[in-house]
């Protein structure tokens, strides 16, 4: 879902940078205020893992593929704020070194993948509440990660659909249904992988789920 | 640090095993653009390793694998730098509190 350069109009690209910047500053401050001691190691490994996972495209249907985005994974593992920063690092390195996602469209990509991914934390929180039930935790994760991919695709569809390159061939009337169609399917993969990863981590090393602890703390109050 | 290296090794194994199976089909966005007749333009900035490949290595598997290992290393180092930067701004009083 990484938007390459040339797809977005400069205006939309700039608007997305302007929207994303305060989110990143806010996250940076939140992380500074709340991070735990073992934070750096978990942040580093999970960022590297998400970079690797995003390279592995899995086929979905009709000659189309998708890959794990990992926004919900990072948000539950690290908390929404560190999760957003972690994803932003991954996206920045992809754009700078691997031409995966453009530099002009970097703001839009951060919004669609990092900000929306981080926001899915609050979907998990809403659905899971204070439940210790594994099944409920798993289904909350599945729904939140599916939703993060579909919401990211919708945002992406609007951004490209309003840009001249796409308006000439139909604009948002075409981009929205097409993006939603593919990502409803890709999201199922996202949900299944994220659910498997996080429930396994919870079983074998629950102390690593910093975001989950944050989630429980907040709900208790 | 040992745990970090162990994690890095696990991710490398993940890539060694899965890279051959990764799909080359277009993703949802590429498919949408394709169906609308929009072609990806020549990028202004091509990056150092466009499409996760090193032009110096002919074997496509080894080329992608090397690029990916470089990628995870860069991401890891930058994340450690971010973690350290966050930590350094913390006031000494709170820093010494275990597991705050």
Describe the structure.
The complex is a heterodimer of chains A (221) and B (100). With 221 residues, chain A is mainly alpha-helical. Chain A contains 9 helices and 2 strands; from the N terminus they run ααββααααααα. Chain B is mainly alpha-helical. Chain B has 4 helices and no strands. In chain B, helix 1 packs antiparallel against helix 3. The radius of gyration of chain B is 19 Å and the shape is extended. Chain B starts with a helix and ends in a 5-residue tail after the last helix. Residues 92-97 of chain B have low confidence and may be disordered. Chains A and B meet through helix 1, helix 2, strand 2, helix 4 and helix 6 of A and helix 1, helix 2 and helix 3 of B.
The main sheet of chain B comes to: none
Specify the number of helices of chain A: 9
Distance between the termini of chain B: 21 Å
Total E-strand runs of chain B: 0
Task: Report the order of strands and helices of chain A.
Answer: HHEEHHHHHHH
Q: Based on helices, strands and strand pairing, what is the structural class of chain B?
A: mainly alpha
Beta-strand content of chain B:
under 5%
Unreliable parts of chain A: none
| DSSP helical segment count of chain B | 4
Largest sheet data of chain A: 2 strands, antiparallel
Structural shape of chain B: extended
Radius of gyration of chain B: 19 Å
Neighbour order of strands in the largest sheet of chain A: 1-2
Q: What is the helical fraction of chain B, as a range of percent?
A: 55-70%
The gyration radius over C-alpha positions of chain A equals 17 Å
The rough form of chain A would be described as: globular
Average of per-residue pLDDT values of chain A: 90
* Structural class category of chain A: mainly alpha
Number of strands of chain A: 2
